Amino acid sequence: MHTKFSVLLASLISILILIPVCAAQDDSDDFIRPNQSCTVFYAAHDDVVLGGNNEDWNNPLPQVWFVPATENEYGRIAFGFDNFFMQGGMNDQGLFFDGLALDTRSEIDTDLPLYPGSLEDYALATCATVDCVVDLYHQYSRYYLASAQLLFGDATGASIIVEPTELVPTADSFQVATNFLQSQSDPEKYTCSRYKTATTMLAEANTYSVELFRDILDATHAEGRNPTLYSNIYDLKNQIVYLYYYHDFETVVTFDLAQELAQGAHLYDLSTLFPQNEAAKKWSERTSNTFQRRLEKAGYDPDIDPATFAAYVGTYEAPPELGIATRYIYVVAYNKHLYVNTPGRLSRYLILYPRSATEFFHMLYDQDRPLDIRFVLDDKGDVVEAVMTVDNIAYTLPRVDDARVTEE
Under DSSP, is residue 247 helix (H, G, I), strand (E, B) or coil? Predict the structure, then answer.
């Protein structure tokens, strides 16, 4: 893959499909840097096989959703945020994963193809074991993981850390991942306190249990500007998930995956599942206010009449150089907002904020770089195309007849 094209493609993907990393801010509202946070671990002994995760982030809108099984895909539970990109999850075969940021960036071999969508979701949809996951990551580029890594574990007792360039299998009955590359580090010189805490607690345990995992999550949780927004424990043998919100480890919500999948596709806003948490409420309000200031700085005009959005609703043809996995994108209006939908294996809706009557942008809580869309009208006032700008590169997307798309 051409290097320049690879960079552009990765930039677009990082916006359209948020990669599983944690981010932190310093005292400036606009400064984003990799965070020394998030802790993922796995342990297996006899009939007890568990995965654990602390999700440390600065987005106040965590979500959980359920994807029922089909003839060709396993059912799964997914955790993430308001763009509905999977940050972690488990399938009905007992395979789980979660992701972490790294404080370094690796050069990735781009000879392998980039999977057109979320490779992590594809892994949960099609794999029952870590061996299958290993095969997948040998087939596709890890370009999007240049500054991130993943930990996968299955119900058989196998786990692996997927680094940008290496695969690190477990060498014990447990495995812990935080924010450094174990393949490039001397075990005698590991300095991450969360890694040391989790490793020590697992090594000293006589047995593995949900209670032990809860205590480890509590001991490694983060507070401050980028707190632990949610924590989960996966019982991989029984496909049970224990969920905690905003590092309150006294209150738990339990999901039986089989029961949830039987209800069909559905989702929950995590905050609605728990009693009101005053600390979480105050943090969320402060973070939302900060995001509002960032929107205003980016040119957001809240006075644009939502009734005008209907003119932009329609289907737009994406040029090949845009590098997304679908030929068309869709613009839809809902509840006084405009959204761009990127269909495919992991369809998601990205909210568009108006700058003017014809100019819009999308911005995430944890990214300052917006995606810009400008709608172009003809002399009659009809929309003929949209111009999407990513990293100062403009792409023209002609508007097409919906009937033509249906026929194709």
Answer: coil
